[in-house]
Amino acid sequence: MKKIVLLLLLLITFSSCKSSKRVVTTKSKIAKIDSRARKSASTSFNPQADKVVDYALKFDGVRYKYGGTTRKGMDCSGLIVTSFDSENISLPRTTGDLSTTGDWVDLKEVTKGDLLFFATRKNSRNVNHVGIVTEAHNGNVEFIHASTSSGVIVSNLAEKYWYFAFVQARRVL
């Protein structure tokens, strides 16, 4: 009986411990995602993915605007839809609908142009944020997205906030 009580106390203690999420985005920070993801994933060449990513990078620095799809303001799913639309690829407008489009991809196999989905709300695993992989090599994954605090920026998946918020990757190309 004592062992069961002790086990329950340990389970409650470990499940209630949670670090707070704090957004710290730096372009110069380079780190490995994990030892399993060290294999280079962006060895394949996809000119369509290059064009989509290049188009998305043109919005770098644009301010965040909910529902926005222009240089006057952009939200995360708007960036995705607009970038893929530049290559005549029609995608759903919402992050939730995007998260069921295309094929699921293991994080170790993501390549340029793949979509990364995140759950950024506290205590939730529901997808509410999306970005496009701009680089993936040697376990280092960078992606462009529209952040509510900084607008359209390039971030690294190895950053603590994004690493723990990551839910899935999908390939639509």
Automatic annotation (TrEMBL):
Q: Name one Pfam family in it.
A: NLPC_P60
Tell me the leader sequence span.
1-18
Alphabetized PROSITE patterns for the sequence: NLPC_P60, PROKAR_LIPOPROTEIN
- Would the keyword Protease turn up in this protein's UniProt record? yes
**Could you tell me which SUPFAM superfamilies the record lists for this protein?**
Cysteine proteinases
Do you know which InterPro entries this protein is assigned to? Answer: Murein_DD/LD_carboxypeptidase (IPR052062), NLP_P60_dom (IPR000064), Papain-like_cys_pep_sf (IPR038765)
Q: Which parts of the sequence belong to the NlpC/P60 domain?
A: 46-173
List, alphabetically, the Gene3D superfamilies matched. endopeptidase domain like (from Nostoc punctiforme) (3.90.1720.10)
Q: Which UniProt keywords apply?
A: Hydrolase, Protease, Signal, Thiol protease
Protein's UniProt keywords contain Signal: yes
- Family per record: Belongs to the peptidase C40 family.
Q: What is this protein called?
A: C40 family peptidase
- The organism named in the record is Gelidibacter pelagius
